């Protein structure tokens, strides 16, 4: 028995065991499922609700000769006998407006606001010719930015579970057993891998339900535009998540108690919120968006949005993805050193410089 | 055999270990004694490879340890810790697998250990649902699940009630008997005295004494004897060359050349007992540190 056994877990096995435990632990919590279900429900709400609430044609009443005028327009017309009846319907909020004869023409009756949506149907708009037609309207782009941003924000913040799990290990001191058993890098790699797998699983479910939501909402034509963008969003989201995960892990390793976690999470929160707000504010500013699409932290949302808006060529996306991947490698190396340097330090918060210092 | 040779370690300007050397022999329980802050935990961490030494070496079976050829350690840290929300059985099995044990073997070992440690009916409870004493037994199981080559236990008995101490002792003795070197630290000298075969005493980062329990006792034995006679033993103080340490009616404890006292006692009447006083570990400990 007292000989050197060879059946030590390999780096890959150790990494996988750590990942497996992370996944099982997180999937076993209620919070995980609640936030996941809320996300899917939110996605459906975002796509379906506007059509439910705003999709119907405006209701109008028409009197006499005016009926001919409103025929064939996108209006829900109700024919009434006289102007008095039409006015009563308006006051009773049965219809939004009434179209009544006025001399040789017509006039529109409404309660207290000119009914813009009704008037638009009645005036002849001049023909419009776009010199550089975009397949995506500004509204659609806004929705995409919102959805991509939210998903990125949600998964980025979800990475906080890595910090919590690291602190748990430090706080309970099981970390001493772990470190004496497997390499610290395997611990870090396993944590990131476990959470990436979980995130990927959630993204896949979202990617599968998003088309369903769009179909339910009758936005099938938008689907054709969203799908390629989604194709770009997923690799960006995954690499971005690895980037943020390693930062979360360091944030966790620097403190020894859950209560102290707040003091190290700030920077990571900025890295997660930055892309979300940045892209929300500047989505209509191609120049700023272009810059953001190359900055590793904001690229995760900015580049897929540009691809979606057809503002960027595929090679740009690949270049940005390359920059992101390179950053991930660098951050992983830095994080791995900081993680190793701080994991066994207990007590007060570990200073970054101390965590970085070469092992004595 | 685990061999520690000349390891030193400083934290900043503070020298915590200074040329520490000792052996942990197979099949024997080695007690590691020292006051708080004397360097026990630091030494154990260096042996485990969790902490680097500033000089010196740790060898296993005569070969210096590196991160590649370390033996399988079973480690129980002083500040206990396992995952509070993980189920007992799952947790032990997982740790076994992390040590490189196959899943089925890890499961079998886990069930055996839980049985030995009388925890079988708590196997599917989360760790945090157990009492502290039971959590500590789980900790022992965690240190043993992978059939380690060497056991390093930091204060394995603190916080255990006497019955739990016996349960844990049984399990550890079985391991030692199968040839595994066991190094354990403790401040409960009575337990160490009863349990260990070898003793290492560390004081302010230096080894103050090391060897088998008997060796140490003999080495620290004094010319100290206890005599019990039928009548009052007051006369002992008048024997030339005697230093009385304790005198209580018919009983006297003294330091002197014993034969002279014995002869005098026999001449005076009945001698009920005459024994050399062997120093307890407690006394040796206080003497050397």
Automatic annotation (TrEMBL), chain B:
Gene3D superfamilies: P-loop containing nucleotide triphosphate hydrolases. Transmembrane segments: none annotated. It is found in: Cell membrane. It is a peripheral membrane protein. GO terms for biological process: response to antibiotic. PROSITE patterns: ABC_TRANSPORTER_1 (PS00211), ABC_TRANSPORTER_2 (PS50893). One of its GO terms (molecular function) is ATP hydrolysis activity. Residues 2-229 form the ABC transporter domain. InterPro entries: AAA+_ATPase (IPR003593), ABC_transporter-like_ATP-bd (IPR003439), ABC_transporter-like_CS (IPR017871), ABC_transporter_ATP-binding (IPR050763), DrrA1/2-like_C (IPR025302), P-loop_NTPase (IPR027417). One of its GO terms (cellular component) is plasma membrane. Its main location: membrane. Belongs to the ABC transporter superfamily. This is ABC transporter ATP-binding protein. It comes from Lentzea aerocolonigenes.
